Amino acid sequence: MLKMPQQEYIKFLREAEGCSVSEIARQVGVHWRTAKRYADQEDWNAALRKRKSNSPVMGPFMEIVDTWLEEDRLLPRKQRHTGVRIFQRLQAEHGFTGGQRTVLAYVKRRKSEMDLERAKTYERLEHPAGEAQVDFTTLQVSHNQQLLTYKLLVLSFPSSNAAFVYPTPAENQECFLEGMQQIFGQMGGAPRRIWFDNLSAAVVHVEKTRRAAVNGGLPTLLCSLPD
């Protein structure tokens, strides 16, 4: 078992530096599985269980491949592992003696399973036509060799992906009200309902009914908050 400073360093490399398990293992000088254990484990009281497998060839390497595939989700598509690259890494880094076809078949199956598992964790949100959502965002622009930061008030319609944007100097109530007025002018009207994600410039307080009272400058707007 690693000492506490080592465990904390591994968690730091994983969460703050975004290092892969292989990179952590090299930097800390520990076995790959040790790095994996301390990098991703959240419940330190949970007993570790070895994954059962009916595949004698891929069995010892399934956890390694799964980790690479999980880490790939954080990378641009062109930088992700191909099945052939995974086979090559298993040979070079872990002494894999099986065939390429075995690895390719496993990678294909696990990618399909992971896509299905990922789909089950998301609930589809329905946005009827005419409903909008509003929030501030930040935009950085390079001008005269200086990086300038601007605030943008964005009103978007999820149903159609249409959006209206107005630049503001800050995220306070005055800028919010001015921005909403300008956006309504661009639109030539107002949405049927607007969703605010606890936007402090708009929401005064959340009521027991999960409705939000809006700042007095917009008496005709009442925003509904998602559960």
How would you describe this structure to a colleague?
The chain has about 230 residues and is an alpha+beta fold. It has two domains: about 5-120, no CATH class; about 130-225. About 40% of the residues lie in helices and about 20% in strands. It has helices spanning about 5-15, 20-30, 30-40, 60-70, 85-95, 100-120, 175-185; strands spanning about 130-145, 145-155, 160-170, 195, 205, 210-215, 225. A four-stranded mixed beta sheet has the order 3-2-1-4. A three-stranded antiparallel beta sheet has the order 5-6-7, with no helix packed on it. A hairpin with a 4-residue loop joins strand 5 and strand 6 (about 210-215). It is elongated and about 70 Å long.
Question: What is the number of strand segments?
Answer: 7
Query: How many helices?
Result: 7
Instruction: State mean pLDDT (0 to 100 scale).
Output: 77
Overall geometry: elongated
- The SSE string, one letter per element, is HHHHHHEEEHEEEE
Instruction: Please give the largest β-sheet.
Output: 4 strands, mixed
**Radius of gyration, Cα only, in angstroms?**
25 Å
End-to-end C-alpha gap: 42 Å
Low-confidence stretches: 208-227
What is the helix content? 25-40%
Total domain units: 2
The portion of residues forming beta strands comes to: 15-25%
Q: Given the helix and strand composition, which structural class is it?
A: alpha+beta
Strand order of the largest sheet: 3-2-1-4
